[in-house]
Specification:
Layout: H1 6-11, H2 15-31, H3 43-52, E1 63-67, H4 75-81, E2 86-91, H5 94-107, E3 111-115, H6 121-127, E4 130-136, H7 141-148, E5 152-162, H8 166-179, E6 186-190, E7 199-205
Parallel strand pairs: 1-2, 1-4, 2-3, 4-5
Antiparallel strand pairs: 5-7, 6-7
Helix pairs in contact: 3-4, 7-8
Pfam family, one: GidB
Enzyme class: transferase
InterPro entries: rRNA_ssu_MeTfrase_G, SAM-dependent_MTases_sf
């Protein structure tokens, strides 16, 4: 599938890698059930570009943990577009984790794949903390915050790619998010002026614990 013109703007020097990732998804990704056949026609717009533009919200050179990576979104496109990032892909299902390892090896990405669930203490201990924790279509915001925020350094943030109901989720789950150490969730769009349909992202900062006063 030929890449859209905007792909060069988003991926820069990583465009060839992005195109190779699309080729892998079209072939073995469909064959192995990582994506549905109907998604092939919109791999660039709905999946790769939609994921890569999240990098607009991420500082240079930071550590990123992508929770529930599945077929590789948003983590793989982020790693391709932003090779300065230290990206870790977390995926609980063996067949998906195997696929991600193949993708990383084939595309020669400096990315780590960890099999496990973000809510498990053993996984948290193994992967450590990150400046940013990303996710896409993983769970409702309240549950997602409970999984992701423990992986975020104090003062860092989680970025959840969401759909049209993002503001409703924020209104419904803000209290639950605060309960697990999150700040006030905010909704923003990435890729404005670049993508026909910008990516909606919910940002939640991890609260900084204040030391208790003596006495």
């Amino acid at each position: 599938m030929p890449e859209p013109e905007v792909a060069g703007r988003v991926f820069g020097d990583g465009l060839d890698r992005a195109a190779e990732f699309v080729d892998m998804l079209e072939r073995s990704g469909v064959e192995r059930g990582l994506i549905g056949p109907r998604e092939v026609e919109r791999l660039w717009d709905r999946h790769l570009l939609n994921s890569a533009v999240v990098g607009e919200r991420i500082d240079a050179g930071v550590r990123v943990i992508d929770v529930g990576s599945g077929a590789g979104f948003p983590g793989v496109p982020l790693a391709i577009a932003r090779p300065d990032l230290d990206v870790v892909l977390v995926e609980p299902m063996a067949r998906r984790a195997d696929w991600l390892n193949e993708v990383v090896e084939t595309l020669e990405l400096d990315v780590t794949v960890e099999r496990g669930r973000a809510e498990e203490k053993v996984l948290r201990k193994r992967v450590g903390l990150a400046d940013v924790v990303t996710s896409r279509a993983v769970a409702p915001l309240a549950r997602l915050a409970g999984w992701c925020l423990p992986l975020v350094r104090e003062g860092g943030m989680m970025l959840a790619v969401k759909g049209a109901s993002a503001r409703d989720e924020v209104a419904r789950d803000a209290t639950a998010v605060a309960r697990v150490g999150g700040g006030v969730p905010t909704v923003s769009e990435c890729g404005v002026g670049v993508l026909e349909t910008p990516t909606t992202v919910v940002r939640v900062e991890r609260s900084v614990r204040r030391p208790r006063r003596a006495g």
